[in-house]
């Protein structure tokens, strides 16, 4: 329930950002640079969580930054899930050379850290929201492919699959009518657990300057902006860091519950 509450809070914040944000996230005021949160000495009720080095309202930037983080997380997972599921189905069902080629590609990609691979591609393509989603989606399909392949290897030997094959069902009908629906629960769980990883990856790319352009407020870029003020204005980096931690924690808790709910074997005592 805590995880679900945190997820709902993040989603509602992203959807209602223009209504929740007390100010324009890009509005700069050099007369209010590095103001502390309202409960600290020198703080102002106009800026509940304080301001950054350019006088921008931190709360507003966190609220609008939630849109980018959730958009990247959800869209990148959809991209990598589509690629991984299709390749996993082909590898697991058909086997042979197709399986060998797909799995060797996956092994090669696993040999390169995802963040390093994403940094290399982003350095070539340039910083943009679309490129971040594309890079994280294309570089993250391996887990999906390997999990789906393992599930399909088991499902294709089940009695109902063999019965469909004996009745003359085509390969595509067997895959999409009998195999794919039986890996759906696993894919939902994988997707739920992959969203936090994509949020962390986007924040890491933005922190290193290879993610979303600086004109778009993101949690990762906010942490980057505040790293030079850790000793004098720690709230600039602390609050977006807390937003990242709570969102990732909430999705992970919800994903763990979802895994137990969809798989009765994971439930205690059953």
- Helix segment tally: 12
The string of secondary-structure elements, in order, is: HHHHHHHHHHHH
DSSP, total strands: 0
* CATH superfamily caption: MetI-like
Structural class: mainly alpha
Quaternary structure annotation: single chain
Q: What about the largest sheet?
A: none
Query: Judging from the principal axes of the Cα atoms, what is the shape?
Result: elongated
Overall tally of domains: 1
Helix content: 55-70%
Would you tell me which CATH topology applies?
MetI-like fold
Report the β-strand fraction as a percent range.
under 5%
Which architecture name does CATH use? Orthogonal Bundle
Low-confidence parts: none
Q: Roughly how many Å is the radius of gyration?
A: 22 Å
CATH class: Mainly Alpha
Distance between the termini: 21 Å
Average pLDDT number? 82
Report on this structure.
There is one protein chain. The two termini are 21 Å apart. The longest helix has 37 residues, at 58-94. 69% of the residues lie in helices and 0% in strands. It is elongated and about 75 Å long. The mean pLDDT is 82. The chain is an all-alpha fold. Helix 8 runs antiparallel to helix 9. It has one domain (71-263): Orthogonal Bundle (MetI-like fold). It has twelve helices and no strands.
List the helices and strands and how they pair.
Layout: H1 2-15, H2 17-20, H3 58-94, H4 96-110, H5 114-125, H6 129-139, H7 141-155, H8 159-166, H9 171-179, H10 184-207, H11 219-226, H12 235-262
């Amino acid at each position: 329930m805590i995880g679900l509450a945190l997820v709902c809070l993040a989603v509602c914040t992203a959807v209602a950002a223009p209504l929740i944000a007390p100010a324009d996230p890009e509005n700069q005021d050099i007369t209010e640079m590095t103001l502390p949160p309202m409960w600290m000495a020198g703080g102002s009720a106009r800026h509940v969580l304080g301001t950054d080095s350019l006088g921008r309202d931190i709360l507003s930037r966190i609220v609008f930054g939630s849109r980018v983080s959730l958009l990247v997380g959800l869209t990148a997972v959809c991209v990598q899930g589509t690629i991984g599921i299709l390749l996993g189905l082909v590898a697991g069902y058909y086997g042979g050379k197709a399986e060998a080629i797909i799995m060797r590609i996956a092994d090669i990609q696993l040999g390169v850290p995802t963040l390093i691979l994403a940094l290399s591609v982003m350095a070539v393509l340039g910083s943009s929201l679309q490129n971040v989603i594309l890079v994280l989606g294309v570089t993250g399909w391996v887990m999906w492919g390997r999990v789906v392949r393992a599930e399909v290897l088991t499902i294709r030997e089940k009695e109902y699959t063999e019965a469909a094959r004996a009745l003359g069902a085509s390969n595509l009908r067997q895959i999409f009518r009998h195999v794919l629906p039986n890996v759906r629960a696993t894919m939902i769980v994988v997707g739920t657990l992959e969203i936090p990883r994509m949020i962390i990856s986007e924040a890491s790319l933005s922190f290193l300057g290879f993610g979303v352009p600086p004109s778009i407020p993101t949690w990762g870029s906010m942490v980057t902006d505040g790293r030079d003020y850790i000793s004098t204005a720690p709230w600039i980096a602390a609050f977006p860091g807390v937003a990242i931690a709570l969102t990732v924690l909430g999705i992970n808790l919800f994903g763990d519950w979802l895994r137990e709910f969809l798989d009765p074997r994971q439930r205690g005592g059953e």
